[in-house]
Design brief:
Elements (H helix, E strand, L loop, with lengths): L10 H10 L2 E3 L5 E5 L3 E5 L5 H13 L8 E6 L8 E7 L5 E7 L6 H18 L3 E5 L4 E5 L12 E2 L26 H16 L6 H21 L16 H15 L9 H11 L9
Parallel strand pairs: 6-7
Antiparallel strand pairs: 1-2, 2-3, 4-5, 5-6, 7-8, 8-9
């Protein structure tokens, strides 16, 4: 078996999917087959395919959606040239419920904003209730109703609802739903992304940007260590949480670390950095 198929953050989900029979890898290791609403095969060399495979396995195994209610590469109505959704989840009556769009990477806010605009338009065309933007280190879930892409926090929800249930307030709960583990090589790549966000295209001196990112890293590690079993972590974006409220939570933790200082980045910038860091476990990676 080609171990390159299972490296990094997608490894565990793909292995679970193979074990439970919801996906298979062809004998020549060139294709993956999704066993869902219809069997669908795709080339594994495509950059986004491991991401899609991981998302599909999570939808079935962690969120409880029946594979027969999920389809892959679904044509989006009213798109010219024709566009396709990576994953569509249907409700039990056959109506579009959730759309997932997978990207190889979204390193800059410009790339992420473009992904939001494109995906939100597609989600509205298919009349889904929710859509997900999933890249290698970032996953953001949106409610489609009354979507405003330029005040995105008003439509961001903490997580995908478990099998057609209510929207959760938080995603990560200690001992219940934990973070992804990443390698030291992957963490350096992630730090490059968040340092770039903090730099703000030159509005902040690069050394100051790195210092501010280091403060946020300290907060996340502290939160990972001190949160009690069964409690929600604070270093995460809750459903429809404003950047101002998120910064208040972050600063309350940082005050316990360094009582003579505050995080100096603007709320919107902190929000964007937390979007990247919240999914991963930092304490074991650095």
């Amino acid at each position: 078996m080609n171990e390159d198929l299972y490296n990094g953050i997608f490894e565990g989900n793909i292995k679970r999917g193979i074990k439970t029979g919801i996906i298979t890898i062809t004998d020549d290791k060139r294709k993956i087959v999704y066993h869902c609403k219809r069997d669908y095969s795709a080339f594994l060399k495509d950059p986004e395919e491991k991401n899609r495979a991981s998302c599909f396995c999570e939808l079935v195994l962690d969120y409880g959606y029946p594979p027969e209610n999920i389809d892959i590469e679904v044509v989006i109505p009213k798109t010219i040239p024709e566009d396709k959704a990576d994953i569509i989840v249907y409700d039990d009556n056959g109506a579009e419920y959730l759309m997932v769009e997978c990207f190889e990477s979204l390193e800059t806010d410009e790339e992420f904003q473009y992904a939001i605009v494109r995906s939100s338009a597609n989600a509205q065309h298919v009349e889904a209730k929710y859509f997900v933007i999933a890249s290698n280190f970032r996953r953001t879930v949106f409610e489609v109703e009354n979507l405003n892409t330029y005040e995105r926090y008003k439509n961001i929800i903490a997580d995908i609802p478990a099998r057609y249930t209510e929207i959760p307030q938080q995603r990560f709960v200690k001992g219940v739903k934990e973070f992804k583990k990443v390698s030291k090589e992957e963490i350096q790549y992630i730090f490059d992304i968040v340092n770039y966000i903090a730099w703000q295209g030159g509005k902040t001196f690069i050394e100051v940007a790195k210092q501010e990112v280091n403060k946020l890293v300290q907060v996340k590690i502290k939160d990972e260590a001190t949160t009690k079993y069964g409690e929600a972590y604070k270093f995460q974006i809750e459903t429809k949480e404003s950047p101002q409220h998120l910064l208040y939570k972050i600063n309350s933790i940082y005050y316990n670390i360094q009582q003579s200082d505050d995080i100096l980045l603007q709320p919107d910038t902190v929000y964007k950095i937390v979007e990247v860091l919240q999914d991963i476990e930092l304490s074991s990676a650095i």
